[in-house]
Design a protein that fits this description.
Largest sheet: 5 strands, antiparallel
Helix content: under 10%
Distance between the termini: 57 Å
Number of strands: 72
Radius of gyration: 45 Å
Strand content: 25-35%
Structural class: mainly beta
Number of helices: 5
């Protein structure tokens, strides 16, 4: 019993680990000098006040010591002054410090038994990088309130108005630029709003001081000096934000009081008191003006008051006016000035200018020679013609009814004065788009139209379309209920010489003409991801992915040309079949609705190239000059940008192997042109303590020089010059990278362009062919390490269906590979995508990176895992290479003598255990003839039986 107790005590003693230290850096958090730091986690029920309290190390770091270290894996987080860190966004962004996560609700750190002491950064996975930038802010709210783009310019950017950094809109009238790292020398600069550079010369000539780099005549530049920190400016002026005055003018010359005694404004700014608003000044020409200095800082509703009488614009708005947009069309109608609008002017009591309104177009049906201004009332004659010769029933009158006459039954009767069967009617209509159809005897009968080139189907109803421009027009003669002329004794066919299927023998157009129709969609402002752009419509049965559009010039405008017959079609643009599609919710100039579905529509009667339209819009994308990063490969690519501004950033991953470094150090840094050769701006990390220090930088394009240094220039790399990764200038030799894309640079040794000397390890490749019929030529291994040669690497069979090959690799080597059943690629395995890398030919290869020890890679042919089999070692069917149990274990092992001639033969035994026993006829088994003497007779008996088979 004492021995057992001693053994247990020994095992327990082995299970107790040394103490564990966990340290967190809070120096770059929102609370760099907290009063308390502690841990929380599953060990303490996630109670924010239940975990151990950390000790302040006095350098921005705090430490918790757990003695002894936990005997189980530990989830945890840091709690700074009651605020628990949140690492979800870091993990979503590809970090790894909080592996216990669902990427939405939680992200917990993990210490595993056997791990070393930890060093964390509060609330982030990256190391603590102190702020090194400076922020410059400009207020445009009073001088350029409608600006859509703000940026800086100056000698740093060659005074190029398109090259300086783009500012970020803060949403409060101010815009900011952060320069990180901050300039190391004094900086001249000016601001630009929508491309217009501010001018501070007059301010400086008047005694201001905001632009000290000036000659008071030709230039006046702002100046930021090293050490001055963040600054705030006001665009185009030195003083605080002071809005220019606003002048509001009204014309009273055509009112009932053309020579009033007083004119003033009223509105909500003055409680709608007709006597409280500002008084206008008489300009002597029938107009009066109010000056508001400064201009209002908010949008302003207002009306005019003439001799105490407030104007009433309700009727004007009911009749189509636009001068009083704040209206319910029955109780009130107020004028509106918006911040940033120009100085407004208007006419008292009306939306139109003073004078006699009427139609001033001499070509119109209702031209008014006395009108002094056009009031939009012009009407233009439209002549309708319909051929009723094919109509089988009696006709009293033919009428044309449409949206202009409320589908009136008999408002627009037509005539057939020459009795040729063609009915004609001319009616004045205002410019605009209309729907109509021909009907007989006040809707006794009407056209039954099918969708065609002259029609629009909307809400399930199909009618003819009419576009009335500011000119008289005569419509072509059409057959009743058709878009085409009636066909008498002519030859039907396509009579249009511009059509693809023009028939010169045809004399009557039968609607069969085919026309090239080009559809275009502009996706510059579409934010989602997609592969293919498709068009779907009634012309292709809404087929999904069958019609793929092309962007041959890479401008994100996709086109397709389809041959269509004359007619009416509905369609929409979609992405990757119907993975995404345009979503319209209302009828508009290019959208119709039928049975609850909103689609684009087009009427085709000739070769047509439709203008490009923006996604879910009837118009082309409004794209002005949009500065930004235009490289899709950059980390800050802006798909809306069309003008490169030099702001593109690329992810550059650097790694340096310090295992061969002879000295001692604490931290490795990278310093270079991108951070002003800062001592501590960009530290590297060695999270797995393998001696390889790593960091990822976001760098601008172009040449960047850098080198690695330790402990803030306590030591730095030295190069002699001429190395393939270096650049020498002015006597200094540094590493150089030409940045033009994101890249992961290979690990290099300290003061070397190459990797450090590598340890080599054996990688054993094993493939289980149990589920395959193995080729007579055997099983072969192919990969990037042997040039994908199908015949050079045959494997060896080692039993249980396992084929094997061993190769020596260097630590850190990465390669692709797969297995062949036979010695050619006809028998290559199908590697699942879940464990493979796309080979660029529609298939996948296996991949592996060599670690720091010998390895064995075992898989089932064409699988990510080892083959299934019997995993019970006490079963006769046991397979030591099985990855999972497939239920094939059927026979239990029975040990015993399996030799049937033995005295103790066990018929039930299936595994011989060496226990067989045999009974001989003599104490001397060598006495073969049994005469009690071992002599020549026994030898002769043996020789006589030599060579015979034992039955």
């Amino acid at each position: 019993m004492k021995q057992v107790f001693t053994l247990i005590l020994f095992v327990l003693t082995l299970g107790v680990q040394a103490q564990l230290s966990l340290t967190v850096d809070v120096s770059c958090s929102a609370t760099p000098n907290p009063s308390s730091v502690r841990m929380t986690g599953a060990f303490w029920g996630w109670d924010p006040n239940g975990g151990p309290v950390a000790a302040d190390n006095g350098d921005g770091t705090w430490t918790v010591v757990l003695d002894p270290a936990p005997a189980a894996n530990m989830e945890y987080k840091w709690n700074v002054e009651g605020v628990i860190e949140n690492l979800i966004d870091d993990m979503v962004g590809g970090a790894s410090c909080a592996p216990i996560t669902d990427f939405v609700n939680y992200a917990n750190r993990l210490w595993s038994v056997g791990d070393p002491d930890t060093f964390d950064t509060y609330d982030q996975c990256a190391g603590c990088v102190p702020a090194t930038g400076v922020t410059l802010t400009v207020d445009v709210s009073c001088t350029a309130p409608t600006a859509t783009a703000v940026r800086m310019t100056g000698p740093f950017w060659g005074w190029d108005p398109n090259a300086g950094p783009v500012a970020t809109d803060n949403g409060d009238g101010t815009w900011s630029v952060t320069l990180d790292p901050m300039p190391t020398v004094d900086m001249e600069y000016l601001w630009l709003a929508d491309g217009v550079q501010e001018n501070l010369i007059d301010d400086m000539a008047g005694g201001a001081s905001c632009a000290p780099i000036t000659d008071f005549a030709s230039y006046a530049n702002r100046l930021w000096t090293v050490g001055s920190g963040n600054v705030s400016n006001t665009y185009d002026q030195c003083g605080g934000c002071v809005a220019p005055p606003l002048t509001v003018t009204v014309d009273v010359s055509c009112s009932g009081t053309p020579a009033p005694a007083s004119v003033r404004m009223t509105g909500p700014f003055w409680g709608w008191d007709p006597n409280a608003g500002p008084i206008a000044a008489d300009n002597g020409d029938g107009t009066w003006t109010v000056t508001l200095d400064p201009a209002p800082a908010a949008n302003m509703e207002y009306l005019w008051v003439v001799d105490g009488v407030q104007e009433n614009l309700i009727s004007a708005m009911q009749n189509g006016g636009t001068c009083a947009p704040i209206t319910d069309f029955s109780n009130y109608a107020n004028r509106l000035w918006n911040v940033g609008d120009a100085n407004p002017s208007g006419t008292y009591g009306q939306c139109d200018a003073c004078g006699a309104g009427g139609c001033t177009d001499a070509t119109a049906a209702n031209y008014d020679a006395a009108a002094t201004f056009d009031d939009g009332s012009c009407l233009y004659n439209v002549t309708f013609q319909v051929d009723m010769n094919n109509y089988p029933n009696a006709i009293g009158f033919v009428n044309v009814s449409g949206t202009w006459n409320g589908w009136c039954a008999d408002c627009n009767q037509m005539e057939d004065l020459d009795l040729d069967g063609v009915w004609v009617g001319t009616f004045p209509l205002a410019p605009g788009d209309y729907l109509f159809k021909y009907q007989i005897d006040s809707w006794t009968d009407q056209e039954n139209l099918s969708p065609g080139s002259c029609t629009l189907t909307q809400g399930g109803n199909t009618n003819r379309t009419l576009d009335v421009a500011a000119a008289a027009q005569t419509l072509d003669v059409v057959c009743f209920a058709s878009c085409f002329a009636c066909i008498g004794g002519g030859v039907p066919g396509c009579t249009d010489a511009t059509a693809a299927n023009y028939d010169p023998a045809a004399t009557a157009n039968d609607g069969s003409c085919l026309y090239d129709v080009t559809f275009s969609i502009d996706l510059q402002q579409y934010a989602g991801a997609y592969t293919d752009v498709n068009i779907n419509g009634t012309f292709n049965g809404w087929c999904g992915a069958c019609a793929i559009m092309e962007d041959l010039d890479g401008d994100l405008t996709y086109d397709i040309t389809i041959q269509l017959q004359e007619g009416y079609y509905e369609y929409k643009f979609t992405l990757d079949g119907f993975t995404a599609q345009e979503n319209f919710t209302a009828i508009s100039e290019c959208v119709t609705e039928n049975f609850g579905f909103f689609n684009r529509y087009v009427n085709i009667s000739s070769n047509t190239a439709l203008a490009p339209v923006c996604w879910e819009s009837c118009e082309d994308c409004v794209v002005g000059v949009v500065f930004g990063c235009t490289d899709p490969g950059a980390t800050n690519y802006n798909p809306a940008a069309n003008t490169l501004d030099g702001t593109c950033l690329y992810s550059i991953a650097l790694s340096v192997d310090m295992n061969s470094y002879a000295g001692t150090f604490t931290t490795v840094y990278v310093a270079g042109t991108f951070n002003g050769w800062s001592a501590d701006a960009n530290p590297l990390q060695d999270a797995d303590l393998d001696g390889i220090w790593q960091t990822t930088l976001l760098l601008n394009s172009g040449s960047q020089e850098y080198k690695f240094q330790v402990d803030m220039w306590a030591d730095d790399e030295t190069f002699v010059g001429g190395e393939p990764c270096t650049f020498t200038s002015l006597g200094f030799t540094n590493r150089e990278i030409i940045v033009n894309s994101s890249v992961v640079l290979p690990v290099v040794c300290w003061e070397s362009c190459s990797a450090c000397a590598t340890e080599f390890y054996t990688v054993t490749f094993r493939v289980d062919m149990s589920n395959e019929t193995v080729s007579p030529t055997g099983v072969y291994l192919v990969g990037s390490f042997q040039g994908w040669d199908a015949t050079s690497t045959p494997t060896s069979y080692m039993g249980y269906g396992i084929y094997e090959y061993a190769i020596l690799f260097g630590s850190g080597d990465s390669f692709e590979y797969k297995y062949l059943n036979g010695n050619d690629f006809v028998g290559e395995e199908t590697v699942p995508g879940a464990c493979g890398l796309d080979d660029g030919f529609g298939a996948f290869n296996r991949t592996h990176t060599v670690g720091n020890s010998d390895e064995t890679l075992l898989v089932c042919f064409s699988s990510c895992e080892a083959c299934a089999g019997c995993t019970d070692p006490l079963s006769l069917e046991y397979n030591p290479f099985a990855g999972s149990d497939d239920g094939s274990c059927a026979t239990s092992l029975v040990y015993g003598c399996t030799y049937s001639d033995a005295d103790n033969y066990n018929a039930a035994a299936n595994v011989d255990d060496g226990s067989c026993m045999f009974t001989t006829g003599s104490d001397c088994p060598e006495d073969l003839n049994g005469d009690g003497i071992i002599n020549a007779g026994d030898l002769l008996q043996f020789l006589g039986a030599f060579g015979t088979a034992c039955l």
